[in-house]
Design brief:
Two copies of one chain form a homodimer. Chain A is mainly alpha-helical and 186 residues long. Chain A has seven helices and three strands. The first copy, chain A, has two domains: 93 residues, Orthogonal Bundle (Arc Repressor Mutant, subunit A); 79 residues. Helix content of chain A is 69%, strand content 5%. A three-stranded antiparallel sheet of chain A has the order 1-3-2. In chain A, a hairpin with an 8-residue loop joins strand 2 and strand 3. In chain A, helix 1 crosses helix 2, helix 2 packs across helix 4 and helix 5 packs antiparallel against helix 6. At the A-B interface, helix 1, helix 5 and helix 6 of A face helix 1, helix 5 and helix 6 of B. The structure holds a DNA duplex (30 and 30 nucleotides).
Amino acid sequence: MTNPHDERAREQIEEAKDQVIQAISETMDLYGVTPAAGKIYATMYFENQMNLDEMREELGMSKPSMSTNVRKLQQIEMVKKKFQRGSRKHTYIAEKNFFHSFMAYFCQMWEREVKTNMDAIHIAENQLSAIIQDNEVSEELREEAENHYQLLNQSKVYYHWLDKLVHSIRSEEIFEFLPKDETLKN
Amino acid sequence: MTNPHDERAREQIEEAKDQVIQAISETMDLYGVTPAAGKIYATMYFENQMNLDEMREELGMSKPSMSTNVRKLQQIEMVKKKFQRGSRKHTYIAEKNFFHSFMAYFCQMWEREVKTNMDAIHIAENQLSAIIQDNEVSEELREEAENHYQLLNQSKVYYHWLDKLVHSIRSEEIFEFLPKDETLKN
DNA sequence: AACTTTGTTAAGAAAAAATTTAACGTTCTG
DNA sequence: CAGAACGTTAAATTTTTTCTTAACAAAGTT
């Protein structure tokens, strides 16, 4: 490795990796992932497997910081724990298939959105329809309740669609409509 | 409005609205929107139009806070400024079509992800292929460069797919595959 | 059973983000 | 043209989040 060509090549490999690591951790920020966790993931992306100590050394972070960040990455399924026979150290592998991460993250997110909002809508709809059906209530308020009711009803179209989207992703049906294009020109 | 029925009805309408406002601002948090901005949007959602003063009063926030939050909401196209002839106050309307917000937000986000990462990948690929083609470099490093190159190449399948997804959303072709279901049972 | 090694909570410190008060600029009105 | 009404920018405060050091718990080894 004292070969001057190799030294230069090693530098260039690191530079190439850093480009991509930077970009990945920058865009993961869009997914509600903190920069630190993004860097951890992006670093692991180029390695076959790493344990907490190796990561800590590579990134100069503290042990608990690694621990919590890796846990978060596990929750969104971007990192998996690998059973390592005969070693007490936990070793992890980065999920390198971005389709998997995409599916896990957005389905989880959208499902929560649908559930939270539909639950609230159902409660609100009941309260509003009680008013609409109450003849003692003034016309003005009845109309307001009616308007809100219609608005909520309209929004359900969206939440149902979002739910269908989640299912088509989970079932991978979406790839029939939008195929993964394995053969790329450039 | 001193009618006791109406008083009760008014309370109940507010309660129904609050349910939904709470849910919306909670789930908007998933979209990188701060709770304050979420509340502003959700409040406007039930109104035809509002100006900054009305919102400030309704939510008990400061004037600059309103100003900056509304601007953020405009950026992600969840709120639009409405030209109001003869008034110096700016009035705003909430985008009530969630499909529109969905499309604007995710297309913007995914496009940035594709661009940032593809740019980095192109640079990295050039650096790596220079090493791969350099015969003076040791076999070991050549192999490492080759591995990274393959990894990046593989990831391009995903970014191309994401790009296609964005286009199919922008062009609304996606609704041919996943129709908006206007007639809902429940 | 005592000692190591590894990972995780807990508590405190540092950093980052959001919010408010205050000052400013602009545009309309009298 | 002076004054008022709105909105925005700047600076400072408060709140939230993140990170680190330190104490702890679990599991394994000698």
